[in-house]
From TrEMBL:
<feature type="binding site">
    <location>
        <position position="116"/>
    </location>
    <ligand>
        <name>Mg(2+) 2</name>
    </ligand>
</feature>
<dbReference type="GO" id="GO:0000287">
    <property type="term" value="F:magnesium ion binding"/>
</dbReference>
<dbReference type="InterPro" id="IPR000146">
    <property type="entry name" value="FBPase_class-1"/>
</dbReference>
<dbReference type="GO" id="GO:0006002">
    <property type="term" value="P:fructose 6-phosphate metabolic process"/>
</dbReference>
<dbReference type="GO" id="GO:0042132">
    <property type="term" value="F:fructose 1,6-bisphosphate 1-phosphatase activity"/>
</dbReference>
<keyword id="KW-0460">Magnesium</keyword>
<feature type="binding site">
    <location>
        <position position="210"/>
    </location>
    <ligand>
        <name>substrate</name>
    </ligand>
</feature>
<keyword id="KW-0378">Hydrolase</keyword>
<dbReference type="InterPro" id="IPR028343">
    <property type="entry name" value="FBPtase"/>
</dbReference>
<dbReference type="Pfam" id="PF18913">
    <property type="entry name" value="FBPase_C"/>
</dbReference>
<dbReference type="GO" id="GO:0005986">
    <property type="term" value="P:sucrose biosynthetic process"/>
</dbReference>
<comment type="subunit">
    <text>Homotetramer.</text>
</comment>
<dbReference type="InterPro" id="IPR033391">
    <property type="entry name" value="FBPase_N"/>
</dbReference>
<comment type="pathway">
    <text>Carbohydrate biosynthesis.</text>
</comment>
<feature type="binding site">
    <location>
        <position position="113"/>
    </location>
    <ligand>
        <name>Mg(2+) 1</name>
    </ligand>
</feature>
<keyword id="KW-0479">Metal-binding</keyword>
<dbReference type="GO" id="GO:0006000">
    <property type="term" value="P:fructose metabolic process"/>
</dbReference>
Amino acid sequence: MKRKTLTQYLVEQQRKKQAVSAEVRLLIETVSRACKAIGHAVSKGALGGVLGSLESENVQGEVQKKLDVLSNEILLEANEWGGHLAAMASEEMETIHRIPNRYPKGEYLLLFDPLDGSSNIDVNVSIGTIFSVLHAPQHASGRDVDEDDFLQPGVRQVAAGYAVYGPQTMLVLTVGTGVVGFTLDREMGSWVLTDDNITIPEQTAEFAINMSNMRHWEAPVKRYIDDCLAGETGPLGKDYNMRWIASMVADVHRILTRGGIFMYPRDERPAGKAGKLRLMYEANPMSFIVEQAGGAAHDGSRRILDVQPTALHQRIGVILGSREEVERVRRYHQEAL
Ligand code: AHG
Ligand code: MN
Ligand code: MN
Ligand code: MN
């Protein structure tokens, strides 16, 4: 049977569940086209002159990679003319990017991590793009949108997704009606539906964490990892495997595909107090996707999607994946109170 394309999927969502307005459909199609362009640049590597770092630092205090900036520009240019957005925000931009006056404005806000896993760019390991869509109806009139309009809890997301530039280039998406996956057909240049109902196994025996931070972890995290490492004779009674790709998109994609728990917890260092990952364009979109796939996502005490943001680039601890495992870690935090 002929596989569906992204456009056909979105038209059907628009028709049957009203989960997707015409503007959101245009937005997702535009972002997916931009991800194709980013994936194309990524795949050129040294041949495209896109590897390596720039002299510049971003608001996160990270040295920017050429692809961080190029991906950011591709997403800005692709999305500013369509009339579906009031503004955009990105890991790579200190303040929000309003739609230039020469273009019509819409009611939606687009947030993105244009290139996730930057430390893997120069070593040819899977990287990705993460995006999140919020609604700001008061801006249809074009009233100047400001940063506060972006500070909405993750439960208010209209859509979220990521592209992963790996052996296959894939797009994973939710509009609040479950999670679907598309594989890029390079010959046709189209996103083809290859997973029409992605669900995360409730149980797992595979954890993902950067072990080099162990001495900084809070007690409940240490307790959980010790339990995993204790193997069959330990309290969890299972032999655990470990994976850490250091591209959140790739680690989360593995978990959506075969289960697992991903942890980038806050830690006891001053710089790690709030966690490393950014709430608005990493934790929130990934948590929306994970919950829609039947998983769970919290920061040790709070459900991530319930957190009321106070700053555009705020960081948060992230524990997400197979529901039973994530609940266990949450219980360990509660028992430590
Ligand atoms: P980004 O490249 O967008 O800055 O994000 C990198 C993040 C995330 O993708 C990954 O899970 C984490 O950083 C890896 O951190 P470590 O290098 O400390 O393991
Ligand atoms: Mn990232
Ligand atoms: Mn990034
Ligand atoms: Mn970065």
